[in-house]
Write a structure and sequence with these properties.
This protein is mainly alpha-helical. The termini are far apart. 0% of the residues are buried.
Length: 69
């Protein structure tokens, strides 16, 4: 299928979705949204940083002075 035919098909599908929406069962949607009040996934966006942890600090490594001289 050429690019013109593919674009025409995409346009046709987009128009159908835009102007001919399917019937929505609003009561089922309401039940689903009410039931999903709690998330099953525990997302930790802010990792806890220990300010006393020097394991990744290269500045506290005394061997750097030896390498530069």
């Amino acid at each position: 299928m050429g690019r013109g035919r593919a674009k025409a098909k995409q346009t046709k599908v987009a128009r159908e979705l835009k102007y001919h929406s399917p019937n929505t069962d609003l009561t089922a949607l309401q039940r689903e949204l009410a039931a999903s009040g709690k998330s099953d996934v525990d997302v930790d966006d802010d990792p806890v940083v220990d300010p006393d942890d020097d394991s990744d600090d290269e500045d506290n490594d005394p061997s750097w002075a030896m390498r530069r001289s």
